[in-house]
Amino acid sequence: MEVNAEARRILAVSISKLYASRTQRGGLRLHRSLLLSLVMRSARDIYHSSRESECQSSEERMDTSSDPEEGQQQPGMPEPQTTLISSEPAQEEPDSADEECEITEDKENLSPTRQSRKRRGKASAAPDFLPIKRARLEPGEERYAAPPSCCRSGAGDSLIALSLNRVIPPPNIHTAYECLHKPHR
Amino acid sequence: VLLERDKRGVGRTDIISTVEFNHTGELLATGDKGGRVVIFQQEIENKSQPQFRSEYNVYSTFQSHEPEFDYLKSLEIEEKINKIRWLPQKNAAQFLLSTNDKTIKLWKISERDKRPEGYNLKEEDGRYKDPNTIMSLRVPVLIPMDLMVEASPRRVFANAHTYHINSISVNSDNETYLSADDLRINLWHLEITDRSFNIVDIKPANMEELTEVITAAEFHPHQCNTFVYSSSKGTIRLCDMRASALCDKHSKLFEEPEDPSNRSFFSEIISSISDVKFSHNGRYMMTRDYLSVKIWDLNMENRPVETYQVHEYLRSKLCSLYENDCIFDKFECCWNGNDSVVMTGSYNNFFRMFDRGQRRDVTLEASRENSKPMQVLKPRKVCAGGKRKKDEISVDSLDFNKKILHTAWHPQDNIIAVATTNNLYIFQDKVN
C-alpha cells in the first residue's frame, strides 16, 4: 500500500532526524522534537490503520483454521520506536494502536506474543528498550539478537529495526532525556 | 513598489540570524551565528537634493555572545544571536538587547570623539611619570579625535531559561522587557539582573503530555500590560498582566479552524507559527506560518482578517521539504511604517511583499547575480505547474539553500533590509 510505504518512509526519516538532533550543538530543541514526534505519530497511526486493514483483508482470505504464525506478524516496528522516540515529550500511549490489532487477533483466537506494554507513567524510568545501559558496539561488532521486548518480523520492518540497532547513542542522550523529565527547581 | 537597489553585500562568513532597525531607522543591527553583532548607520548623502540616497555603513562590530558549556547537562550553548531589540533612545548612547539561547545582554553603544590630553601624572602613552619630575600643575583638556564607537555590556540577564530563548520584546513602559523560551515567558526589569518574574508557564506536570510550545512573544506597542505569544499549534494568546501575576489564562485566543481538505502528515508542522508582530498602530497583529502570512484584528479571535499565501506551490512538496529539513525553517515577517504593506521571506533568495490596501503582492529577489546596484528590481514569478512562461522559475529549480528568514523595514521610510544566508541587502524606494 502506497500510504503504508510512505508512512514507513516518513517514520524512518523521522527517526534519523531525531538521532541527528541529539548530537547537534545547543542540545535538544524542544520545538523541533515535538514536531518530529507529531509527524511520527501521524505516520505511525496511518501505518497501524493500514496494517490493520491488511490484517483484516488477509483474515478474509484465510480459512477458518487460524494460523498461529500469523500472530507473530505484528506491526511490531512502530511501537517500541514510538516510545523510544517519545523520550522526547509529546508521547501518546501506543496502547490505542495496539488495541486495534488486538481486536483483530482476538478474532483469530490467538494469543500473540506481545511486546512489553509497560505504561510509561508518572515514574520517569527510562524505557527498557532505550539503549542507555547497553554496551557500546565496537566497529564491526553486531548485536547477536534483537531484545526480547521487541518483536520484529517481516522484511519491511528490518530497515527500521536496523536503524535502531546500529545507532550508537552518544553519551549525552541519557542526560538530555533526564533533563527533559526532571522537575526543575 | 519599485525599488532601487543599493547593494550592501557584506560578504561575512557567518550566517545572519537576526536583523533589526532601531526606532528612528538610523541604525540597523544584525546578529549572526558566531555571536557577533554588526551595526550599520545610515549616512544621508545629501539631504538638500530631492533624490538623496542613503547608505548604510558599518558603525560598530562587537562580539556579543560566546559559546558556553553547561556542565550540569553536558550541553553546549550556542553563541548564535537569536534576537536583537533596540531600546528607545534616552540619551546620547544607544542601547540594545541581544540574546542567544540562554542569556540576554544589554549593550550600550556610545560614541567617543574626544579624548583627554595633558595629564599631570601620566605620559601621553600612559606610562606613569616619576612624581619628582613634576614641576607644574595643569588641567587636562579634551581634544577632538577620530570617532570611536564603543560597545559595552551593561547588564547580563542569565540563568532564567531552561529551554531555548526564541523572543525578547521591550515593553512600551521602557522599563521592562519579556523573554520567551519554549515553555515559559519571563518579565525582567532592565535594571535588575538577578531575578525575573515568570508570567507564562505552559510546562505540563508530566512532560509526556506536552502538546505545544511557545514559538514567539511580543509586547503590545502601546499598552504596557498586554502581550501576545504564539504556539506551535498555530494559536496566539493575548494576555493581560493586570489580570493576574501568572498569565496562564489568556484574555483572548486567536485560532483559525483547520481546513480539513488540507490535512496531511505535515499539517501540524506547517501550522506552527514562526513569528508574530504587532502592527505599529497596535490594532492588528501578523503571524507567519510555513506557507502563509495572516493578519489578525485584535478584536476578532475566530479567524484572521487577511491571509496571504507566501509560496503555496510548496504545499505539494512538503514531504521533500521535511526530508531536507526546510519545513522547520522559521521565517519572520514585518510591517512597513504605516502598516500598509507586510513583507516576509521565502526560498531562492526571494522575498514577498503584500500591499494590504491595494491588494497587490510582489516577489523580489535578493541576489548579486540577478541585479546590479541602483537597478530597479524586477518582479519574479514562480511557475507552479504546467507551462512555464519566459522569465518564470519552476518550483523544482528553486534553491532551497538560499532562504530569506530575516527581513526588516525602516520605521518611517521605504527602506528594507533583507538577509540572505551570508549577506545583507538594503533596498530603498526609488525617489523621482
TrEMBL record, chain A:
<feature type="compositionally biased region" description="Basic and acidic residues">
    <location>
        <begin position="47"/>
        <end position="64"/>
    </location>
</feature>
<feature type="region of interest" description="Disordered">
    <location>
        <begin position="47"/>
        <end position="128"/>
    </location>
</feature>
<protein>
    <submittedName>
        <fullName>Immediate early response 2b</fullName>
    </submittedName>
</protein>
<dbReference type="InterPro" id="IPR008653">
    <property type="entry name" value="IER"/>
</dbReference>
<feature type="compositionally biased region" description="Low complexity">
    <location>
        <begin position="71"/>
        <end position="81"/>
    </location>
</feature>
<feature type="compositionally biased region" description="Acidic residues">
    <location>
        <begin position="90"/>
        <end position="103"/>
    </location>
</feature>
<dbReference type="Pfam" id="PF05760">
    <property type="entry name" value="IER"/>
</dbReference>
<comment type="similarity">
    <text>Belongs to the IER family.</text>
</comment>
TrEMBL record, chain B:
<dbReference type="InterPro" id="IPR015943">
    <property type="entry name" value="WD40/YVTN_repeat-like_dom_sf"/>
</dbReference>
<dbReference type="GO" id="GO:0000159">
    <property type="term" value="C:protein phosphatase type 2A complex"/>
</dbReference>
<dbReference type="InterPro" id="IPR000009">
    <property type="entry name" value="PP2A_PR55"/>
</dbReference>
<keyword id="KW-0853">WD repeat</keyword>
<dbReference type="InterPro" id="IPR018067">
    <property type="entry name" value="PP2A_PR55_CS"/>
</dbReference>
<protein>
    <recommendedName>
        <fullName>Serine/threonine-protein phosphatase 2A 55 kDa regulatory subunit B</fullName>
    </recommendedName>
</protein>
<comment type="subunit">
    <text>PP2A consists of a common heterodimeric core enzyme, composed of a 36 kDa catalytic subunit (subunit C) and a 65 kDa constant regulatory subunit (PR65 or subunit A), that associates with a variety of regulatory subunits.</text>
</comment>
<dbReference type="InterPro" id="IPR036322">
    <property type="entry name" value="WD40_repeat_dom_sf"/>
</dbReference>
<keyword id="KW-0677">Repeat</keyword>
<dbReference type="GO" id="GO:0019888">
    <property type="term" value="F:protein phosphatase regulator activity"/>
</dbReference>
<dbReference type="InterPro" id="IPR001680">
    <property type="entry name" value="WD40_rpt"/>
</dbReference>
<comment type="similarity">
    <text>Belongs to the phosphatase 2A regulatory subunit B family.</text>
</comment>
